[in-house]
Every structure is written in structure tokens, then in C-alpha cells.
């Protein structure tokens, strides 16, 4: 081997190996942080506050005013939120997005002179595709859809937990309440996008690989809100969202599913029993590194009707179901060819 070539390889190879390991670990850290904030922090934040105050009483001078602020600021999630461009542009979101990786696909241009209601499916466990596509600007959503401002709608419970609520608000998340949707879609300043997961919490329990079960047949509230505001409906499908986790079998009527639905009705959060991969072994709570492709379909024109009738709601609901079905089958073979779609 050429001496110069060998010398160059011995100098650059360690750097490449180190760089690869470094970036790989950053991706894992980004995912671990996201899952900690969503699943662990809400259950431990209040005990942590109490423990800190007990061990270090002066900390109460900071913690108690902050809790009072959270109560005083309780309307913000219903009033367009408090997004931070700097926070949405943090590099950590890039590492989290590249872990899968996540890809955002636009099929048509959207005019910034309107307010839109994006309806994203499936919900998955924590909507990773939607979160990285629209909760950060890593997918260049603001360039892909110039003039549009995105607000992801989530459980109102999210904003009941200190610290977690600040994280969510900085990302641009808002409450999924009717009041919140009307404030976004009814704003005189156009170019607002409310991103809703119509399947909601119940759809989480149906998130199994290669089986897309969409809870839509009895979900018509979002249709009524769209009609009241005259906001175009935009179907969005996250191919691969259900493939990044595995859930223990929980068919309708099973003991596990019955217990899950009872707990969900009690606390408002679906207690999914999932598993994925670990960072040291192949089994753990973290998602599999499988691609997620978020496809944004064509908008459905929606007339503004202040008091829509049941017939008008049903007609638009039927049109929407056809649109999301067509979007799925138009892209299924390219992204998740072995998957199936069921609308219940």
C-alpha cells in the first residue's frame, strides 16, 4: 500500500469513527430526552418539587411563584400558544429527526391567505412524525409552506404539568379544545395552521405495526369546527408512525384493552403498553430507527357555515374520509407496501 495513502487513512479513520459514534449518540440522546419529557416527567415533577423544597427550603421562593405563574398562564394554550423560533430551530430536533429519519412531503402548494385545519393520521404513540415535521423547523416546514404558521393541537392535560407545558408551548403546541381551534382558525391574520390528530387518545391503543386503524367514523367535531370557520381541511398521513413501536396484543374486549380504556376514561391519557429498542440491548422503551414519511395532501374546500346542519356535517365528513383514504392508497406502495387501512 502506498505509504502516503496509509498515513492519510490512519489519520482520518479515527476521526470518522469518532464522528459517527458521536452523532449516533446525539440522536439517541435526543430521542431519550423527548420520551423522558413526555412519559416520565409528568409522573415525577410534583414529587421532585416537594423533595427539592424539603431538602432545600429556599428553593420554595422560586418553585411556588412558578406554580402560581402556571395557573395564571393557564389560558395561553387556548390562545395561539407561545412558540419560540429559536427553540424550534435547536439542533437537538435535527438529531431526533435523523434518528428515524423523518421526511416531510408536500403534494400541492397551499395559499397563505387562508387558515387551514391539518388532520394527521395515525396518532401513533406520541406523533413523532408530526412533532418533528411541524413542532420544529428541522424539516424546513416554514420554507416548504411559506407564509404558514403551524400549531400542533394536543391533550389539554399536557399543559397541566409544570416544565412539560413550557416545553410544549415553545414548540408551538396548543390545546386541542374547541376554543383553541376557533382562535387559530378564526384569526383575522391568515396563514395559521391547526394540526389535529382526529383519532385522539383512543387511536393510540390501536397503533400496531402495518395496521393503520383510524378512529374516524364517529369523529365529526373537527368537521363542524372547519365548517364554522370556513377552513380548508388538509389530510395528512404519517407513513411509518405505527412501525416505530410494538404494543402487546390488546384487541377489543380483551382484559388488557378493558383496563386500558378504563384508565384512559379516568385520567384522559391512554396507558399504552409498548416496547421497542434499547440503546445497549435490542429491547427497551425507545422507538425503532425506522423511517417516517409525513405526506401532506391537497386541501378540501370548506364553505363557511355558522350553524351547519347534521346533513352538511355528514356530507363533508364523507368527503374527508374519501380524501384520507385516497391519500393513503396513493402513497402506500412507496412507503409501507405491506400495511392495511381500516377506518372505524
TrEMBL record:
Pathway: Glycerolipid metabolism; triacylglycerol biosynthesis; Lipid metabolism. GO terms for biological process: glycerol metabolic process; triglyceride biosynthetic process. Its EC number is 2.3.1.-. CDD domains: LPLAT_MGAT-like. It is found in: Endoplasmic reticulum membrane. It is an enzyme of class 2 (transferase). Keywords: Acyltransferase, Endoplasmic reticulum, Glycerol metabolism, Lipid biosynthesis, Lipid metabolism, Membrane, Transferase, Transmembrane, Transmembrane helix. This is Acyltransferase. It comes from Orchesella cincta.
Amino acid at each position: 500500500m502506498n505509504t502516503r495513502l496509509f498515513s492519510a487513512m490512519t489519520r482520518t479513520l479515527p476521526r470518522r469513527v469518532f464522528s459517527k459514534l458521536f452523532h449516533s449518540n446525539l440522536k439517541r440522546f435526543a430521542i431519550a430526552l423527548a420520551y423522558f419529557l413526555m412519559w416520565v416527567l409528568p409522573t415525577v415533577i410534583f414529587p421532585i418539587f416537594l423533595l427539592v423544597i424539603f431538602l432545600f427550603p429556599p428553593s420554595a421562593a422560586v418553585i411556588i411563584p412558578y406554580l402560581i405563574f402556571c395557573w395564571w398562564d393557564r389560558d395561553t394554550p387556548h390562545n395561539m400558544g407561545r412558540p419560540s423560533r429559536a427553540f424550534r430551530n435547536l439542533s437537538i430536533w435535527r438529531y431526533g429527526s435523523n434518528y428515524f429519519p423523518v421526511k416531510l412531503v408536500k403534494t400541492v402548494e397551499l395559499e397563505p391567505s387562508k387558515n387551514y385545519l391539518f388532520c394527521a393520521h395515525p396518532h401513533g404513540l406520541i406523533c413523532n412524525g408530526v412533532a418533528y415535521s411541524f413542532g420544529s423547523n428541522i424539516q424546513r416546514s416554514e420554507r416548504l409552506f411559506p407564509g404558514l404558521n403551524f400549531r400542533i393541537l394536543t391533550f389539554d392535560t399536557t399543559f397541566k404539568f409544570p416544565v412539560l407545558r413550557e416545553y410544549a408551548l415553545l414548540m408551538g403546541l396548543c390545546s386541542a379544545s374547541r376554543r383553541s381551534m376557533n382562535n387559530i382558525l378564526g384569526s383575522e391574520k391568515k396563514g395559521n395552521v391547526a394540526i389535529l390528530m382526529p383519532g385522539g387518545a383512543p387511536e393510540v391503543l390501536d397503533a400496531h405495526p402495518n395496521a393503520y386503524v383510524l378512529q374516524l367514523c364517529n369523529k365529526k367535531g373537527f368537521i363542524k369546527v372547519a365548517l364554522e370557520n370556513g377552513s380548508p381541511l388538509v389530510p395528512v398521513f404519517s407513513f411509518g408512525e405505527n412501525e416505530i413501536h410494538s404494543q402487546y396484543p390488546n384487541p377489543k374486549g380483551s382484559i388488557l384493552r378493558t383496563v386500558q380504556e378504563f384508565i384512559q376514561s379516568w385520567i384522559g391519557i391512554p396507558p399504552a403498553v409498548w416496547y421497542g429498542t434499547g440503546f445497549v440491548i435490542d429491547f427497551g422503551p425507545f422507538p425503532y430507527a425506522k423511517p417516517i414519511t409525513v405526506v401532506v395532501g391537497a386541501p378540501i374546500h370548506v364553505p363557511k357555515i355558522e350553524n351547519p346542519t347534521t346533513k352538511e356535517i355528514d356530507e363533508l365528513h364523507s368527503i374527508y374520509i374519501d380524501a384520507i383514504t385516497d391519500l393513503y392508497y396513493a402513497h402506500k406502495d412507496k412507503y409501507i407496501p405491506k400495511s392495511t387501512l381500516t377506518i372505524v
